[in-house]
Amino acid sequence: MQDILEGMAAALERRPHLLRLGRLVQDTVLIRLDDGREWFLHYRDGRIAHIEEGPSRKTPWRFGIVTDREALDAFWQQTPKPGFHDIFGLAKIGRARIEGDVLALVKTLRFHKEVLALPRGVRS
C-alpha cells in the first residue's frame, strides 16, 4: 500500500491542473484499512509532502477514509464497478466511512477525488 501511495504522490506532481486545483490544500488526510493499518497523507500547497505510516494517536488529521483493501482495489480498477467509482459511492454501499471534518473534504472534493483516483489504470 505504501508504494501505491508513493506512486500517487509522484503522479500528482505530473498533473499541473491538480496542483493548481489543490494549491491551497494544507491538510493531513487519514487512510485507514479495516485491519487497523493506516497512513497519513500530509498535503502542503496541494502536494503530498510526506506519507506517514501509522498507527499513531499523536498525528492530527482533518478527515479520514476508512475502508477495506478489497474495496480500494475495486476503486482503483481502470473502470470501477458502480459504487466503487467514488469515495462517497463507497460510503453509500457500506464499504467505507468518512470521518472527521467532512466540510473540509467537501470544500476540496474535486481535488481529493481526483488525487485518490490517480492509481487507476496503473494497477492490474
Calculate the terminal CA-CA distance, rounded to whole Å: 14 Å
Element-level helix/strand string = HHEEEEHHEHH
Number of H/I helices: 6
By DSSP, the count of extended strands is 5
Helical proportion, percent range: 25-40%
Beta percentage is 15-25%
Question: Residue ranges: pLDDT <50 for 5 or more in a row?
Answer: none
Evaluate the radius of gyration.
13 Å
Query: What's the story with the biggest beta sheet?
Result: 5 strands, mixed
Main sheet: which strands, in order across? 3-2-1-4-5
What does this structure look like?
The chain is of the alpha+beta class and 124 residues long. The protein is built from 6 helices and 5 strands; from the N terminus they run ααββββααβαα. The chain has helices spanning 2-13, 16-21, 69-75, 87-92, 102-107, 109-116, and strands spanning 28-33, 38-44, 47-53, 63-67, 96-100. Strands 3-2-1-4-5 form a 5-stranded mixed beta sheet. It is globular and about 30 Å long. The model has no long low-confidence stretch (mean pLDDT 94).
